[in-house]
Amino acid sequence: MTLTFNDNLLPTLPIMEDLPVDRIIGITSTIPIEIVFAAGYIPIDLNNIFVCDPSSYKMVEDAESAGLPRNTCAWIKGIYSATRKYHIKKVLSVIQGDCSNNQALMEIFQSEGIETIPFAYPHSKTDKKFLQDQLERLADSLEVDYSKAEEMKGRLDAVRAKIHEIDRLTWVENTVTGEENHIWTVSTSDLMGDYTVFEERAVRFLKLVREREPVQHALRIGVVGIPPICEDLYAFLSSVGAHVVFNEIQRQFSMPYSTRTLVDQYSEYTYPYDIFSRLEDIQQGIKQRNIKGLIHYVQSFCHRHIHDRLIRKNVQLPILTLDCDRPGRLDGAMKTRIEAFIEMLR
Ligand code: SF4
User: Fold this and answer.
1) I want to staple 77 with a disulfide (CB 3.0 to 4.6 A). Which of 22, 63, 103, 170 is the partner?
2) 28 lies in some domain
3) Which segments of 113-238 are extended strands (E)?
4) What is the domain count for the chain?
5) At what angle do helices 146-168 and 128-141 cross, to 10 degrees?
6) Could you tell me if residue 266 is inside a domain?
7) Is any ligand 1 atom within 6 A of the Cβ of residue 106?
8) Using an 8 Å Cβ cutoff, are 39 and 139 in contact?
9) Mean pLDDT by 10 residues, the chain (346 residues)
10) At 45, which CATH number?
11) What confidence tens digit (pLDDT) does each residue in 273-292 have?
12) pLDDT for the residue 106
């Protein structure tokens, strides 16, 4: 397969047309990719393929033309269009621990002849028996020995360690920008389908960063919530003098904990579980990284918007809740709100 990177050595998408379509497994959220890689498949995060597509806005409209409701989250519509556009034949979908929209989307795929593979996180992160059972079922359905997936974890831990170093450089040395941090960490959901090339590029990026001067912005902020769909949020934050030193969910995709087994790893991963373990992680991030304010990114029509109340209740910092619907650039009203928030933090 071909994996390309831009001049700054940030990861960019694989060229989909070059991939053997029979080996691709589209994923709709972060899942145990160790099992997918161990089985010889190429995991491709459909969210990334959609949001980086130059016609991402149109892909949302195409999904609406195909009958998906206007008042459904744009990520769901983008996943649908990306799957159709690249003739993906297998989709591995999280049916518990993400959202019911994904579950309904899976049924749409089934009705259109696309093979779907369900994966469910347990309701509680402490239910390790349920999680173990799901991991083994997934390995069975992809016809791979479970022990091979555990071996793959060791290999991917080494790759992810490079991304943890990129994250550390963002908030300790201040030599990695918030946007670079976002791109590297969000890309760990599928390691762009090729962990060897991904690792090589991460090593090259780390070398490049060592020669850099630190970011000069004094104001340190965090972005919590699902990864933003708008393309210029980080660039705009940087232009108004804010250094994003914490990308909550993207960091979670990189599995930032030291764990021995897949069950331990996917129990520590906070995203599929209740808000309370996320809150602990956010609180720790704020303290450790000396964060002065948060942007809580919420996706229009997403149930996770309800968490805003709990985040505000539990986090004693100024918070700007930013709601966005479709891919594209920030509009004038959003920019004004962000500018006013950053000014207030100063
Ligand atoms: S943003 Fe919300 S509604 Fe949309 S796919 Fe993610 S969890 Fe589901």
Assistant:
1) 63
2) yes
3) 115-120, 219-225
4) 1
5) 110
6) no
7) no
8) yes
9) 48 78 95 98 96 95 97 97 96 92 95 96 96 98 98 98 98 96 97 95 95 88 97 96 97 97 98 96 98 98 96 97 96 97 96
10) 3.40.50.11890
11) 999 999 999 999 999 999 99
12) 95
Please identify, by atom number, the ligand 1 atom nearest to the C-alpha of residue 79.
5
| DSSP structure class, residue 328 | B
CB distance 76 to ligand 1 below 6 Å: yes
Task: Pick the atom of ligand 1 nearest to 226's CA.
Answer: 1
CB 324 near ligand 1, within 6 Å: no
Cβ of residue 149 lying under 6 Å from some atom of ligand 1? no
Distances (CA, A) of 141 to 89, 96, 132, 170: 15, 18, 14, 39
Q: How far from 187 is each of 48, 69, 147, 234, 335, CA to CA, in Å?
A: 8, 28, 25, 16, 26
53: in domain: yes
- Tell me whether residue 235 is in a domain: no
Domain assignment of residue 125, given as a range: 3-143
Q: Please report the beta strands in 19-89, taking only residues with DSSP state E, as ranges in sequence order.
A: 24-27, 42-45
To test ligand 1's pocket by mutation, which of 45, 75, 79, 108 has the most ligand atoms within 8 angstroms of CB?
75
Instruction: Look at residue 17 in the predicted model and tell me its pLDDT.
Output: 80
Q: What is the pLDDT of residues 93-128, one digit of tens each?
A: 999 998 899 999 999 999 999 999 999 999 999 999
